[in-house]
Amino acid sequence: MDLEGLRASIAAVEARPAGSEDLPPLAPEAHEAATASLRLLRYRPRSEQELRDRLAEKEHPPEAIDEAIGRLRAWGLIDDAEFAAEWVRGRRRRRGRSRGALERELRGKGVGEAHIADAVADIDASDEREQATELVRTRLARRYPGAVDREAAVGERRRLVAFLARRGYPTGLAMAVVDSELAAHGPS
């Protein structure tokens, strides 16, 4: 669920009567934890573990956290599988992250291995190479509108390999892509 969809769902939840027929009212402490969770979700979607951690930091009792998380699930506001899939789509599109980097980020957010595997299942080696190539091409086009001379290529190679490494690409792939693109952008 994207941020706008999530915000619309939160508004619909907040407009519901407190004790609707399908769900009993929350205990007072659980209501506070659920309200705090809704505030957090207005900024961005979060994994279940992220919400649990944030609520625990704010010293909500464990029973209240469990009840609030259960209610958020019932309302359809948290779903780790959907969160992981959206995280992967967004981070690949906006940041150019590699499969390995995405897996590490999702683990850090407490997403389960099965959800992580499903979210990155469509990313294969050719997708990784294509993404890395596009990142390097964009960077080279911005820095060097014309050809890259041999002297500049030496320093640029190091910078571009490091650039891809920060996005989680393996060194071998990064070096191969950078060398190929520098050769293509070199003097004729």
Automatic annotation (TrEMBL):
Is Cytoplasm set as a keyword in this record? yes
Subcellular location(s) of the protein = Cytoplasm
The RecX second three-helical domain, residue ranges: 79-119
- Please list the residue ranges annotated as the RecX first three-helical domain: 36-72
Q: Does the keyword ATP-binding apply?
A: no
Pfam entry (one): RecX_HTH1
Q: Which UniProt keywords apply?
A: Cytoplasm
- State the family named in the UniProt similarity comment for this chain: Belongs to the RecX family.
Purpose = Modulates RecA activity.
Name listed for the protein in its UniProt record: Regulatory protein RecX
Write down the species: Dietzia aerolata
